[in-house]
Amino acid sequence: MTPWVKRLLIANIAVYLLQLAYPELTSLLVYSRSRLLVAPWTPLTYMFAHAGIGHIFFNMLVLYFFGPRVEARLGSGRFIALYLVSGLTGALLSSFNPMTPILGASGAVFGVELAYARYWPRDKIYIYGVLPVEARWLVVIMTIVSLFGAGGLGSAGTAHFAHLGGFLGAAVFLYVIEHTRTRARPAKSAPVRSQVRQPPAPRGDDMRRWSTIPRGELHEINRQEVDRLLDKISLKGIDSLTPAERAALDRFSKQKS
User: Which CATH number fits domain 3-178: 3.40.50.2300, 3.40.47.10, 1.20.1540.10, 2.60.40.420?
Assistant: First the structure.
């Protein structure tokens, strides 16, 4: 269990328990565009409130399964930013239906799910523990369902615009961080020990090349190694890589056509 996934699970469950104890609290937390001026906090608070036990159970279940690996890949700071941006974008798109209030973590959780599919697109997700669907196709299916629902062809009472907003916010967020990764501040150089020459820190061009390694074209074992090394950079910084690990990333990046 990673730090922010744990905190978000606790926060959502705590708010739901407060809703059960004080039912009038729910009306103060839900979001709708028509109430934005009198309740400007609701684009944030709506994603911590839920409509019932099934609602919160499935949202937290998805967060529990997908969240830890995404947080380990992105780092805790970027993970919570992804979660909040996805939820806020869900509120923004829900404004197309200004009179309908929304609540629930679905928009934020959908953003986490999209990030998972971005980095591990071929991982199989077992729907109801039986039906295997690759992560990338699961996102495609859920997008189509939400588009139909937003057009009035889906189930009533479901925040389809919030779901689409979660996907959109996550896609934009991931695009931005992946294309600004090379602008990160260089780490402080480590002191030279004995007479061993320390390898130079990777240049911005190296980081750009590593972030665009064609993972889908790699053998599964090599793909897992690339993921492990990129996770290591996210968690511990570029300087944590050994010369052999840097060479491995360079070798994988040269496979790009």
Answer: 1.20.1540.10
